[in-house]
Amino acid sequence: MEGVRAPMSAYRLAVALIWALAVLNSAIARGLFWDGASFLANMLASRTFHDFYPPREHVAWLTQAPVLLAVDLGLRNTHVLAIVYSAALFAWPAGLYHLALHRVRADPALLAAVVTVIATVYLPTSFFIVGEYNVAYAVATATMAVVATGVSRRRDGVLLCVLGAIAIASYEVMIYLGPLLAIAILWARRERAGVIDDITKLLMPIAALAFLGGAVVALQAIVTYWDHVYFREVRAAAFHFWQNLQFLVPIVGLAILVLTSLVRPGWLRGRGPVALLSLVAMLLAATPLLRRFDPQAMLFPPSHYVARTAAGWLLTAILVAMWLYAGWHKKRPELLTLLARPDIARRLLGALTVVMLAAAVPDLVLDRLWVGYLDDFRGLVVGHAGVVRANDLPMAEWPYRLFAQDWTYPALSVLLSDAPGQGLVLIDNDYRTILPFDPLCGTIPKLDGFAWR
Predict the structure, then answer these.
(1) What pLDDT digit, counting tens, does each position of 50-69 carry?
(2) Rg for the chain, CA atoms, rounded
């Protein structure tokens, strides 16, 4: 029974953590961070989806629909609407990761892989929760969890089709995740040919085709926008993931663990991996303290956005490892054989669960700072009338610099106001010579009838 209890404890902790954070981050309206404020304001002003980028529209529809439904039902409280929007943004990744955890809960090695995704991919990049990649990465993880645990019923086939439909227009990472998942699904169909019925056999190629469709949509988007200034900046920043301490610390530890295990698989029998991961967890939990020793060594929410590309590469490696573990049966390498041993897998799972819990510590620290920033910004809005020049404010200083994005000031000002004529925080920028990626962002939305309560 000990072998059963250990995975179930890790499973319950992981599920409790992602949903507790989702509830907390919804309550503090963290969906307003950066682009989120502008997206929400534009939705309320137009009364329709902020669907500025068709290659990601399926995720936009899923995360924005609850807000538009609430508006249709007569809700005009922007505070509550910000909570609703945040809840939709966090609920989808949380639900999909919950699905993945549920599928692999009986296998400690696969459960350890999903816990690793949460600790190294989701938590270190999700402060920018409005980014569609959060849902795309969760979709990919849930899909591989279904494949790795065996497709056996029609509802598994339906589930894969639904996940594939979301992936069609989710994020550009589908240019490589889409083909990987499509091939994995077709492989699973062949492996399970003697178990699944004809309906499931039909559904699985449809799901694979949907993921390939996601790759085609991603390719079209990349080709179309390859020379756009914004995309050039994104490519240039892809290797700047080291700026994100929440991502850097666990990925370095994970790299040491993987490389050592590849060279000397036998070390997994000892306590070395647990000691290494325990050190990683302590360093990760201590990252909020580093600024006391070096002002530049700080947690920085915008770096979540910067690290998203590298997080996609890491996710791909973890998904491939899950697939190899589940599908490599003949002449299995020693490493995979050892990972399949319950005692070794349970030890790794326990240590990685501690790393996951440690990854939540920086998240909670940033949450506290975000609440203070939002309160201060609202104080500027309700305490002034007319234009408030952001150039005269300490937005480049700690802690404001963690959350400030100048072209979202107008949207955030309008959302946080509770009466006409209150303060409108603006940067000295005409929003014509320097445009954000979406031209609607940076403009002053008109939200007649809406107010923060």
Answers:
(1) 876 889 999 999 999 999 99
(2) 23
